[in-house]
From TrEMBL:
The keyword NAD does not apply. Coiled coil: none annotated. This is GH16 domain-containing protein. Pfam families: Glyco_hydro_16. GO terms for molecular function: hydrolase activity, acting on glycosyl bonds. It comes from Urochloa decumbens.
């Protein structure tokens, strides 16, 4: 069972927040809550990866509600500092993390290159739509704004208010339409594609902390109450994430588009 927490909205809205959103009010921590520090008064969430301490080697949090197409999610994120090779840290939408037929839209940071971010989307458990985007900054140097907007016809990814990718629905092609939670996590993906996806974890600068603040989600008009919990245990969830990562990495290795 996921643990629950509440988030405050202590700061003024970020200038890049999309319209039709509101501060994330509740989160669930569904993997290693001891490695996720939530500061509701500050509206901040900090997720830690530290191989030296059992139970603190990564964590995952998510929204309590699922969201319908027609709005957006966003957060300001500061990536972990130091040598982060091997780690994956992220912000993504998923209809249900442990489901093999999930829809998903994501930002993924690949630890071996902190000046890049990967975008992708999945329909019915099928991905293979990866793109790597160069960033004009080191994602660990400070907080930067990341936003995903989607509806029945298009998906847009923005960084600091700038559009970096837009995908338009083509007639007859599959499209992510399931209600989706907002998720974020940090984990060691060294084993994916023999380290070619995120690099190989060294751990020289542990602990690694990925920080999220100013998190916004669609308003109630674009959300539905939670209907089910993911009942698989943590090991099964990790295996599912690893399998998904392997699919992403294989596609990238085969020649993902670079912007």
């Amino acid at each position: 069972m996921a643990s629950e927490s509440e988030s405050g909205n202590a700061a003024a809205p970020h200038p890049h927040h999309p319209e039709g959103t509101e501060a994330l009010a509740h989160i669930a921590i569904d993997y290693r809550p001891e490695a996720c520090r939530h500061e509701p008064d500050a509206g901040e969430i900090h997720v830690t990866y530290d191989h030296r301490h059992p139970g603190r080697d990564g964590s995952r949090w998510r929204s309590r509600r699922r969201f319908l197409p027609g709005s957006a999610v966003a957060a300001t994120i500061r990536a972990p500092a130091g040598d982060t090779a091997g780690l994956n840290y992220n912000l993504y939408l998923s209809s249900l993390e442990c489901s093999r037929d999930m829809d998903e839209i994501d930002f993924e940071f690949l630890g071996h290159d902190k000046c890049a971010v990967q975008t992708n989307y999945h329909v019915g458990g099928q991905g293979g739509r990866e793109q790597i985007h160069r960033l004009p900054f080191d994602s660990s140097d400070g907080f930067h704004h990341y936003a995903i907007a989607w509806d029945a016809s298009a998906i847009e990814w923005r960084v600091d208010g700038e559009l970096i990718r837009r995908e338009e629905r083509r007639q007859g092609e599959p499209w992510p339409e399931k209600p989706m939670y907002l998720y974020a996590s940090v984990w060691d993906a060294s084993d994916i594609n023999e380290g070619r996806w995120t690099g190989t974890y060294h751990g020289n600068d542990a602990p690694y902390v990925c920080s999220y603040k100013d998190v916004v989600v669609p308003t109630v008009a674009f959300s539905v109450e939670e209907e089910q919990e993911c009942t698989e245990d943590a090991d099964a969830a990790a295996e599912a994430a690893a399998a998904d990562g392997a699919t992403d990495a294989a596609a990238v290795d085969a020649g993902a588009t670079e912007d």
